[in-house]
Structures are given as structure tokens and as C-alpha cells.
Amino acid sequence: MANSKYEYVKSFEVEDEVMLPNLIVVRIDGRDFRRFSEVHEFEKPDDGRALNLMNACATAVLEEYSDIVFSYGFSDEYSFVFKKTSKFYQRRASKLLSLIVSFFSSVYVMKWKEFFPEKELKYPPSFHSRVICCASKEVLQAYLAWRQNDCGESEGEAQKLLKVEENVKYNENGTPVKRLRRKARIVHSENIAGKNFWNEHLSLLKEVGGFTEDVEKIKPEFVRSFQFENKLMPSTWIVIRIDGCHFHRFSEVHEFEKPNDKQALNLMNSCAVAVLEEIQDIIFTYGVSDEYSFVLKKDSQFYQRRASEIVSVTVSFFSSMYVMKWKEFFPQKELKYPPSFDGRVVCYPSSKILLDYLAWRQVDCHINNQYNTCFWMLVKKKGKSKSEAQHYLKGTQAKEKNELLTKEFGIDYNELEIMFRQGSLAFWLKEDKNMTHESKGCVQNSHKKEDKNMTHESKGCVQNSHKKVIVEHCDIIKPNFWEAHPSILDENLPIF
């Protein structure tokens, strides 16, 4: 992160660590999947292929994240149980629930054609997620019994992760060398919370612990009391920030151009626009590289201001859209593995602090882009190794970096594409036939054409409200932009 006078805004971020020795469960469930199943003509009462797609996604999650040792699912929901000693993402609830739901959503879209080769995926699926903080094994047992009871008469799907030995290579003398490799296997059981089922698997006993008694009576209200929920403070600005997970590797594997890949940035921008069109309470968003910050209106009651719902739905929808739009921006490149994003949600009590937060992100954009431009010029043009380039730039100031670019590479940093230097922003603009839109100091993109993947509700809302989403690249630190668009914050009080 860049150092600037706006750094103080980080103090508004809250810790949401699930403390040891609590057991962690992340549950995801489909958002408006009743309609999703109708639009995609799933068979009733159960569509075998749809259930197998959910199972395949859950299997991928277990194999991707070794700290998850068991999962149970039915219909459009899945619960993932972490090992008792897990320190994955420092046990931060927002990171866990957002990362799992993001990866699950990406896999769902990528595997769609595998299970429905004859059906078009008509719009991006999205999922809710939440953390259940189980204070004991008995609470976990009650939770699993509750979920299977909700499953009803069907047996549902129980999934466990086993360690199996595989021949991975051979010694010079031909002797096979074996190592433990974690694999997920789907099993069915009438009672996944029963002590016999749970205790017969040594891996579960080791990673979570065993059950001593069977559950006789389920009390859902007891289990619900352990749900890790943070209801956001009223009358404050809500910001959801999502970040690409391990996108350094993702960009290398997919051969993104350095220091900036314009198509990759435009893909991020297109996904951000889709989020604004989908979630009407989001009024503004700013993004750079593999991150985006979404601002909800101050009086928003979106999901009753429940943090887990807000961040999970946003991250899930963004992830699904990223996969669905990949070919639009990279028609010649295969998406080699599912992208994932983690997210957090923060409240800011005033417009001044909100704008300082956005200024902080834009300052970060400038400093990082200037450094990366110098770094990759040294690597690509001067033949320096990455460590040599890092050492060369260590301790240099902005002026020195600009001089390096000018003298060594003939590059005027201020002439580089404005999207690279200042990031991208998108917001709702009310349409007026008699109005011409000219933002002060901004470069405006043409309006995004209607997306065939947009939900029916979103299309109707955009058309009836006579609004459109505008994407721009400009300075949002100085007051010019905000003075030109006072309707974004919708406040009469001076903020500068």
C-alpha cells in the first residue's frame, strides 16, 4: 500500500477473526435460485445434473483449500468445515466467506458446459455465504444435523476429503515413490451427524474430532445463535472492496501484458459495471489493477445491512461475471483455472472520510503504476533480473522515477494512458435528452451496450429509471469531479 495522508482511513476497518478453539463452517447458498432454475429449465423436483454440478464445485473447493476437510450439501447450498487448527487467512470471517464463495462461483460458470452442454448460461449465478462459528464439536454436530434435516426426505450429498497414496514417480531402480495426496470423494449417508459415520473416518477424527453421542433433538434457533454476523452501522457509507487472490500468478499464467494489460483492465471494468447494474444500491465504484471498491448509498438497506450477505453476493456475482465475460475480452486465450477474489466491507461515517478513502486508493494506483512501469522497463528493456530491478528502484522518489523513464526509455509518464495512471470509475448518470455530459478533467467511455447476461430485473430497472452507467478515468482527489456530479453523494453539505 502507498504511504499518503489518506492512510488514516484504514483505521475504520474492523477485525473479524474467529478465535480459536472455535470450529469454522462456511455455508453458501444460491441467490434467487428458484428463478435461476426456472430460467434454465431445471427438472423438478430434482435435477440430477444441477446437483452434480454443485457437487463438482464443492469437490473443487475441497481440493483447492487443504484446510477444508469436510463438506455437506443439497439443492443449491453447501457447508464447508475447516480443520480445528486452521489459520487460513488468519481466520478472518470476511476473507473466508468471500474467497470460498468467489471460487465456488467461478467454478460453477466454468463447469456449466460440462454438465449442460446443450444449454446456454443465460446470466451469472451468484451465491450468499456466511460463517458459522461453532464453539464446540457438539455445536458442529447439531449444525450438520440441522442442515440434513432441512434437506428433507432426500439423502443429500455428504462429501469428505481423504488422503490417498498415489505413485507419482519412480526411483532409478524402478521402485515407485509414493506420497500422500488429498482427494475429495462424494459419499451418501442418512445421518452425517451420527457418531458412527463421523468417527469411522480417521482423517476427520484427527482434523476436527469425534462425536460421542448422536443428536436426539435439533434446535435450529440454538445453531443460528452461532452465526458470525456483523450488522453494519446505520447512516454510514458502506464500501465493499474486492481484490484478486494471487493475481500475480494469475496474470503470469494467462500472459497479461506488463506493466498494464488493457484488456484485463477493461474486463475488470465491465464486471464492475455489471455489478452496478445488478445491485441498484451501489452508486459509485473505483477500480485499479485487480481490485474494485463499490460504494453503497448511505441509507441503503441492502440485505438489512448484513455484512456477510453484502460482501458475499457482490464478490460472487463479480466472479461469475468475470468468467462469463472472459472470451469477450480474450477470445484467443483459454481461461486455465478459476479466478477468485476476496472481499471486505467497511463503513465510513461521513462523505469527507469516504472521499479520503477513494483518494487513498487513487494515490495507491499512481504510486504502484509508476513503480511498475519503471520496474518492467528495467526488466524488459535493460535486461535486468526482477531482483536487480527491485534493488535499483529501492528508495527512489517519484521525481527520480520520472527522470529514469524520460532519460533511459524516452517515456513521459504523464503521457501514459490515463486509465493506467488514475484507474477507472463508474457511476449512475440520470439521462436528460437536453443535457450534454461533460465531466471536468475526465475521459469518458462510450456507454456500455445492454448485456444479454443482465438479469431481467436489472434490465427493467435501467430502462424504467432512465439511467445509465458511465465509465470514466479522471482525478477524483481534487473536487472538480465531485462538484460536476453532486448527485452521486446526493448531499447538500459542503464536503471540501
From TrEMBL:
Catalytic activity: a 5'-end ribonucleotide-tRNA(His) + GTP + ATP + H2O = a 5'-end phospho-guanosine-ribonucleotide-tRNA(His) + AMP + 2 diphosphate + H(+)
Cellular-component GO terms for this entry: nucleoplasm
Database matches in InterPro entries: Thg1_C_dom, tRNAHis_GuaTrfase_cat, tRNAHis_GuaTrfase_Thg1, tRNAHis_GuaTrfase_Thg1_sf
Compartments, as annotated in UniProt: Nucleus, Nucleoplasm
A Pfam family the protein falls into: Thg1C
Bias kind Basic and acidic residues: ranges: 447-458
Keyword Transcription: no
Region (Disordered) residue spans: 439-458
EC number of the protein: 2.7.7.79
Keywords: GTP-binding, Magnesium, Metal-binding, Nucleotide-binding, Nucleotidyltransferase, Nucleus, Transferase, tRNA processing
Family of the protein in this entry: Belongs to the tRNA(His) guanylyltransferase family.
PANTHER family found in the cross-reference section: TRNA(HIS) GUANYLYLTRANSFERASE-RELATED (PTHR12729)
Designated name of the protein: tRNA(His) guanylyltransferase
Source species of the chain: Quercus suber
Gene: THG1
